Amino acid sequence: MRSPYSNNPKNLGELGQQVLADKRLILVSNRGPIEYRAGGGDDHESQACYGSGGVAVALSAAARYAPVTWVASAMTDADRQVAQRSEDNIIGGDSEEHPWRVRFVVVPDGVYERYYNLVSNPVLWFLQHSLWKRLERPSLWHDIQEAWEQGYVPVNRRFAEAVLAELQMADTAPCVMFHDYHLYLAPLYVRAQAPEAILTHFIHIPWPPPETWQQLPWDVTEDICRGLLANDVVGFQTADSAHNFLATCERFVAGAEVRFDPDEASIRLSGHLTKVRHHPISVDVAELGRRMASPEVEAYRHKLAPLRGRYTIVRVDRVDPSKNIVAGFKAFDLLLQRHPELIGQVKFLALLVPSRTGIPEYRRYTEEVLTAIRDINSRYQRAGWRPIELLYENSYPQALAAMSLYDVLLVNSLADGMNLVSKEGPIVNERDGVLVLSRAAGSHAELGEHALSVDPTDIEGTAEALASALSMPEAERRARASRLRQTIGRNDLAVWLGNQLEDVRSVALERGVRSTASVAR
Ligand code: F6P
Asked: What is the dotted CATH code of the domain comprising 285-490?
């Protein structure tokens, strides 16, 4: 069904104004929209850079409809310095370039280390992406207990304090939107002080079934569920994740009344109702069009042109074990073994973004990726032709330029909440390129029928899919590429945002809209 918001910013704008006219939007996520880096100039002024995470990019669009305050971690030393120089750690909100205010949450290094590098990523991210290596960590609880208590819990409290400070300052009824797995506990701390505030939480990564959560200590899973149940709405990318969340709360939270009916899914706990929804996130199609026309992207197109082959395979990923990058190279290796006629003809452009390098699993995985690239390049390299070109840096315009020129885009994640690359690629590609897409990516539910589907652990199957994509008749490529563009265009970011706003409106109506937030002072 076509959504009233797709390709129709007017409808979304009207809804935004109706729902948010009297509200301040408080977005809460670990990574914010802006990040400072130490300045290199004589004045040593810190440089502001736009945040790179998918969540930050997607949410920036919300700032068009309401005044936004973004509560986010100070992640770099420069962030901390800038925050500490400003009143209440608040920056921005004063210019077109910085339309939102950012309230930085500043915590001591050791506390942040425990929260981000010991709990959020190596425990929650891996667990939720089913990458948990149980045999390797038989005494997990002992390993993480201190990090949970001295890291995850206090940072969540600090986030809640920052949100409460915003609620106290608000002269209009605020709506607080939490994002992701770093902040499962914060809503409970906010709710305790602000019983009437509208709180929503969107989880961008998969929510696995209760059996997976069983691997954490029972009371940790219970606390996570109770934290989330302090929200009015909890949203997921897929129906499977929403269902798994309902089942997890039923198993772990005594007294939770769970309603599984997909249209009315909800959980009632101690009189408070939490609606459970699923809204697949997407890309801002119009904004991508503007970006593609920018001189910056054009400059990268020129830079990348000489790296192309007669055929070009592209992948764009953070270096994360869940992205299954090494298996993708193994499939490419098999492709070259089975189709020696492609040697010298096909190039693989790997745009890989350094990620979470403070975590040993990520450092080891980076080494594995680099070894796989070296190995393949040394075995197949010929004069004037190197099979894999690695671009190892964080450059969004360069990634867009690369995606414009692929013949095949490889997305073979082991697990993925959505995977925005698989939605950006078909929109910006100019060669009717084929999408090879993992069945384990959240986007597969929407895009699978127009892509070539692969099971992420099936290297043979992935090699075959790459071969079929490269030899696909032009008419079929064109038809598939066009259907991908239509599907993504029908359900773009405006639809996701519209759905979030509808959720907020329904909570506000049920509660009886109040003009100001009631915060226990
Ligand atoms: O939802 C997953 C997410 O938090 C996204 O914001 C982004 O794609 C990625 O993970 C970034 O992770 P980090 O903030 O740890 O670099």
From this structure: 3.40.50.2000
